[in-house]
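Hello again, I could really use a second opinion on something today. I've been staring at a protein lately and its backbone has me curious. Please have a think about how the structure follows from the sequence. I owe you a coffee for this, so here goes:
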Amino acid sequence: MDYRSIDRLDRATRFGRRELFRLGCAVLFLAGVMLYAYTRLPTVEHTLLAVAAMIGGYMAINIGANDVANNVGPAVGSRALTLAGAIVIAAIFEAAGALIAGGEVAGTIKKNIIDPALIPDSNVFVWLMMAALLAGAVWLNLATAMGAPVSTTHSIVGGVLGSGLAAAGMAVVKWKVVAAIVASWVISPLLGGLIAAGFLYLIKRRITYQADVIAAARRQVPWLIAVMAWAFVTYLLLKGFKHVWKISFFQASVIGFLAATTIYLFTRPLVEAAAARLENGKESVSQLFTVPLIFAAAFLSFAHGANDVANAVGPLAAINGALNVHEVITRATIPLWVMGVGALGISLGLALYGPKLIRTVGSEITVLDKTRAFCIAMAAALTVLVASQLGLPVSSTHTALGAVFGVGFLREYLKGRHARAIELIIAHHPAESRAELEAYLEEYQNAPLERKREMLRELKGRPPEQAHGLDKAERKQLKRVYKEQLVRRELFLKIIAAWIITLPFSAILAAMFYFMIRGMMI
């Protein structure tokens, strides 16, 4: 075999080696978790706890692989962070959030969707929780393989719902709570999309549509950074540290306002100095949002680690508590080793399998620059704050993806509106005045927003010419531009379909797993 054949064989097997390495690392982690958990309890219980710990670690790996992409994907897609840098930042802050602010006590029934009083005994409760955890993890694994970011909370809720139905029948389910969770499928992405699109349009009106973009950026960007600081400080205090420090929305808002004021005074001279070195163009302004995006990725990861680690370790802590006291429990103390399983599992899953979903969120749905990614990060924090004050259920995954879709669809709308304006201009210029048409188009492109509107009003006030300033082929090209889609429809539909089936699919899987576990244990 010559060297060229060896090189071709090496390239052909490279993908398989990478996959084997990822699988090997995950298996070693789960084996270590099982061995440690096996020593925690005596007699038969230690076997159950070891299996439950393995499932909890598997769930944590899949949370890291799927859910964390929402926090860092926009920053990577806009090139504010490299993929490797995003993984390092997210892993550190996810683990820090879980260990520092993950809480010492967790509710055992996620979202209180079933009534624990109707569960017959502690054995049924343990089987129920194991089935729910395994179903949620398997669905997350499948969704990650398909490249579909889904809600981990909905996955585990579906698991608890399905195994609860299998264990105790229809009466055990609190259907009003389930209905509220289903409502979040619509509320979260719509609210996130509207807020992200609103901020992007505000930035365009106040900065990128101005004649002197740099001067507008010097005035507006410090205020935008201050608003982001208020949103994220308030968000972290209410959500990131809610397990260790109870604080009202008003108190968190005041602290956030003080932090925002300080950051505004600090960043204003820095923004002015940075803007002075930039060229007058919207692409240059995007560079001013690089540092805020890096902080946003870190803060979102910390809050996610503090909140969503419960999806992995909450059921495991419940199983650990039930095996210790031999009764159904509604609140469980989370041992340090259980929290460590969640923190390490999420970080490992992100490092091994996270890049696929990070690319999907950051660059495959729609093209993101730093300005658009900034709006998505803002929406992720503000949506949770607004929804929590209105008492609306939200999903962080649906919120982040809704913000990405909102930005993309706003771009489509603005691009279509611009194309219609160009068509109007062309319709009012005869073919023999090609130079006049080009001069008018150049003036329109460079004009501020109010002047553009005035120019279009003037054109609408007189009848169009019979001949156009562009030939037939050029007019067809213009129509193609008008119809261009800036959001990938096939990916959009795939993600929506995955959201819809998350809860019912997890529920069916959990019911199947419950009967399997029950059959093996009886």
User: Anything to note?
Assistant: The longest strand covers residues 105-107. DSSP finds 18 helices and two strands in the chain.
